[in-house]
Amino acid sequence: MRAVRLYGIGDLRFEVIPVRRELGPQDVRIRVRAAGVCGSDLHNFRTGQWMRQLPITPGHEFAGEVAEVGAGVTDFKCGDLVLGDSRVSCGRCPSCRAGRPNVCERMGYVGEVCDGAFAEMIDLPAERLLTVPHGVPLQVAALAEPLGVALRVVRRLDPAKDSPIVIAGAGPIGGLAAILLNHLGFGPLGIIERNTDRAGLVASLTGAFILGAGPAGSAGPVASAGADVVRRFAGQSGLRYAIEATGSRAMVNGLLGSLTGGGRLAMVGLFRGEPAFDANAVVERELEIRGCSVFCEEQREVLPLLPLLAAQLSRVISPGIPLERLPGEYGRLILGQSAFLKTIVEPWRPAT
Ligand SMILES: [Zn+2]
Ligand SMILES: [Zn+2]
Question: How far apart are CA 46 and CA 48, in angstroms?
Answer without folding.
Answer: 6
